[in-house]
Design goal:
Layout lengths: L3 E5 L5 H9 L12 E3 L2 E3 L3 H4 L4 H7 L5 E7 L19 E6 L8 H10 L4 E4 L8 H7 L2
Parallel strand pairs: 1-3, 1-4, 4-5, 5-6
Antiparallel strand pairs: 2-3
The structure holds guanosine-5'-diphosphate and magnesium ion.
Guanosine-5'-diphosphate binds next to helix 1.
Length: about 140
């Protein structure tokens, strides 16, 4: 099983995806620390929100086989810089969250992720469970 690291803004849905994919009692803590849970590595939103911490993301990614960049479909903006993915030198999957929420624009979120360098993008929705099997497959 591959080790998977999640990157995304605070509240983008990283912990929710880990919970859904692991099917276990992952109890996320809101702390400025990288968390390890089984084969999943969760990173603080602050690491993406402040470019001063990019180095911490890059260092943490050394432990993973595949990266997931998480983008909330209801957010009109994205903090993923263009061509962010290649600096990690790992396969990068984009995960759009809240795809089914009112006002969500999953295609906009997908555009953000693709411009950041995600080769594969999966549209997920936490409530309906849409896309979770596809994401599990993408990181298996
Ligand atoms: N409706 C809906 N809520 C979501 C979805 N993904 C995450 N959430 C909710 O958004 C909030 C933040 O998600 P969380 O996973 O904690 O974000 P994190 O800060 O990136 O770890 C939580 O209350 C989640 O239940 C989704 O796809 N749909
Ligand atoms: Mg979290």
């Amino acid at each position: 099983m591959k080790r998977v690291m999640f990157i995304g803004e605070t509240d983008s849905g990283k912990s929710g995806l880990i919970l859904a994919l692991s099917g276990e009692a992952y109890a996320p803590r809101r702390a400025m620390a990288v968390e390890y849970f089984g084969r999943f590595i969760n990173t603080p939103g602050e690491f993406l929100e402040n470019s001063r911490y990019y180095h911490a993301l890059i260092t943490s990614s050394a432990d993973c086989d595949v990266l997931v960049m998480v983008q909330d479909a209801t957010r009109p903006t994205s903090l993923f810089p263009a061509l962010f993915a290649p600096i990690f030198n790992r396969p990068v999957v984009g995960a759009v969250t809240r795809s089914g929420e009112p006002g969500a624009k999953p295609e906009r979120a997908e555009r953000f992720l693709r411009s950041a360098g995600a080769k594969r993008v999966v549209l997920t929705d936490f409530r309906s469970g849409a896309g979770l099997d596809a994401l599990a497959d993408a990181v298996s």
